[in-house]
Amino acid sequence: MNKLLLLLLWLLLPSAAFCQNDLSCYDEVKTVLDEYAIVRKGTGYRLVTTEGKVVIETAYDDMEIVRLQDGNYLVPVKKDDQWGILDNNGKPLTDMVFDIISINSWGTPRVTIGGNSYELRSTFRNNLAIVREVELYGLMDNNGLLRTPCKYSYIEPFEEGATTTFAEFISQVMVGIDLQTGEEIR
Fold first, then answer.
1. What is the spatial distance between Cα 137 and Cα 108, in angstroms, rounded to a whole number?
2. Measured between alpha carbons, how far is 80 from 61 in angstroms, rounded to an integer?
3. Which regions of 23-152 does DSSP assign to beta strands (E)?
4. pTM of this prediction?
5. Is 42 left (phi over 0), alpha (psi -120 to 50) or beta?
6. What are the average pLDDT values for consecutive 10-residue runs of the chain, which has 186 residues?
7. Quick check: 85 and 62 in contact, CB under 8 A?
8. How far apart are CA 28 and CA 45, in angstroms?
9. Please, are residues 38 and 4 in contact by the beta-carbon 8 Å criterion?
10. Exposure winner among 63, 67, 117, 170, fewest CB in 10 A?
């Protein structure tokens, strides 16, 4: 009995070790972007590095990854018919509140909530992201609510911890935006 168990362990160990260093042990490699890969094992998707190191362990019904123009990664995930967004380390950036998250042909994520659709133009900082509807920009919070309506021709990107940012109307008038309240500062 011990010899049979040892034989089984000997046969299984090389494949388990091999799985840690590449993507061949997964049922599907859905997407590869830079050093990241979205893989499926069984029924769930996970984020791993291209060397096979697991980054996001939780299995989701669906998953995407996108690199924004600022170099940050967003990982839209689906669970039980609702979508949310994680960073590339698995930290939740939003709640699971979106009806649909899709990636357009330019690699820009589009979120849909309550029948309204917005392009995400930045990562979530201070629980806010810059969004675009048609050609105008606003701010959306991590619950999918517009904190500032999409009425600006431009919103200045902001860093984590910032309390204000600047926005510009089509008429070239600049205003400040309080990131806590979403209100204009004139």
1. 15
2. 7
3. 28-33, 36-41, 44-49, 54-60, 62-63, 66-67, 73-79, 82-86, 100-103, 109-113, 116-120, 128-133, 136-141, 146-152
4. 0.81
5. left
6. 47 44 88 96 94 92 92 94 96 96 89 95 92 95 94 92 88 87 86
7. no
8. 9
9. no
10. 170
